[in-house]
Design goal:
By secondary structure, the chain is mainly alpha-helical. Helices cover about 80% and strands about 0% of the residues. The chain has one domain (about 10-185, about 210-400): Growth Hormone, Chain: A, CATH 1.20.1250.
Length: about 400
């Protein structure tokens, strides 16, 4: 076997395969973005907003913890084993959802889905960074996240139509097929990338030993300002995605929109988010990380607030497009910031900690918006999340100053 080479072109076959695998990962979660918030009340009799959003809380906790564990284990056991483990954990999810006699089954299934996303998606991110080396990180991450969230969008749109036509169980059957394809391709076609890590590390003048996990956690969480900026912005970004997932379907339903209209709106946001990352990842390689992150967070916040003044389909769609563009600017760029400011020897751990905070945003968003919607109303929940997103963008812009070699 030839020695590993760094670069997108040199690894185009494995890179493309990992893009496809990540599309399967994204579709798994997209299938339930429209279906579960609506079926919570109609099929399982859940009445409270906070209770209905409990499946997102469970998903977020499981995914955040899996991200952290996956990052650390990947440096010891390799990437491929954890990718395969992620798909093995995802296999029972659609079956549990299809046969669930009560809401507790749905919550349990989403714990497994969170583990699937945490292990499988994290490994596709880490492996692509391994393959391309330091010069094309933004581009690689943009392609990876684009595939994942375009699949989220397509799956959400299709499942929304099935829901509107009374064929929601088709959603779960497609989920079974996706999980099987993801597992088989990861097991038999994907190759590990630890050799690429060793090559990149060997090219450095100074080889940094892998620090203890506590040291990495403190660096990423608060000690190193670039990493802290990424962690807090990632948390708030997924906090408002939790709002979009759990509250907005019910908000649009309350506004009198039909099932197909809601499906299009909820698919539009991740579609723009997904496709946009094909451009924003490479854009941040050229112009730096600070501008896209700051502008993206502010645009997200303004778009969320626009929902409160929307009165017809066009204005709702405008707000969802704005959320998608803002998230596209932010998502791959935050991952690139973490990669820029961590050594190959502990980069997987750093990405795991960052993704712990980022996907912890699902938990914060679901709990906060659910409690606010129950006590104050859905509009107040949307207002609160929008304001927090604006403040996060301003804080990230402050922390990411002044310009350095990656800014």
């Amino acid at each position: 076997m030839s020695s590993p080479r760094l670069g997108l072109r040199a690894n185009i076959g494995q890179f493309t395969l990992l893009v496809v695998v990540n599309a399967f990962v994204g579709a798994m979660v997209g299938l339930e973005r429209v279906v579960l918030p609506v079926l919570a009340g109609t099929r399982w009799g859940v009445e409270s907003y906070a209770a209905a959003l409990s499946f997102i809380v469970t998903f977020g906790v499981a995914k955040a913890l899996a991200n952290t564990v996956a990052g650390r284990l990947a440096e010891r056991a390799g990437r491929k084993k954890l990718l395969v483990l992620g798909w093995a954990l995802g296999l029972p999810v659609p079956l549990l959802l299809m046969w669930a006699p009560s809401w507790s089954w749905v919550v349990a299934a989403n714990a497994l889905l969170g583990l699937n996303q945490g292990f499988a998606w994290t490994m596709t991110v880490v492996m692509k960074i391994d393959l391309v080396g330091p010069k094309q990180r933004g581009l690689a991450l943009g392609i990876n996240e684009s595939a994942g969230y375009a699949a989220v969008s397509l799956a959400a749109l299709i499942s929304g139509y099935w829901l509107a036509s009374g064929n929601e169980d088709l959603t779960f059957l497609v989920g079974i097929a996706l999980a099987v394809c993801g597992l088989l391709s990861s097991l038999f076609l994907v190759r590990d990338t630890m050799g690429h890590v060793a090559m990149e590390q060997g090219r450095r003048d100074v080889v940094e030993e892998r620090p203890a996990w506590r040291a990495v956690f403190s660096r990423v969480t608060w000690k190193e300002r670039h990493l802290h900026a990424a962690s807090q912005a990632g948390l708030v970004n997924n906090m408002n995605d939790g709002l979009a997932w759990g509250i907005l379907p019910l908000f649009f339903l309350q506004a009198g929109l039909g099932g197909e209209q809601i499906a299009w709106l909820l698919a539009l946001y991740p579609l723009i988010w997904g496709v946009g990352q094909l451009f924003t990842g490479g854009f941040s390689d050229r112009v730096g990380r600070r501008g896209p992150i700051t502008m993206g967070m502010i645009l997200q916040g303004m778009s969320i607030l626009l929902l409160l003044d929307a009165e017809h389909m066009v204005s709702y769609a405008t707000a969802m497009v704005g959320m998608g563009v803002g998230t596209a600017l932010v998502y791959p760029t935050l991952l690139a910031v973490v990669s820029d400011h961590s050594s190959p020897s502990w980069r997987a751990s750093a990405l795991g900690v960052y993704r712990l905070w980022r996907d912890g945003g699902y938990v914060v968003g679901a709990v906060l918006s659910g409690v606010m919607a129950d006590t104050l109303g859905m509009e107040e929940a949307i207002l609160g999340i929008g304001v927090l997103t604006l403040l996060s963008g301003l804080w990230a812009g402050w922390l990411l100053r002044p310009a350095d070699s990656n800014q």
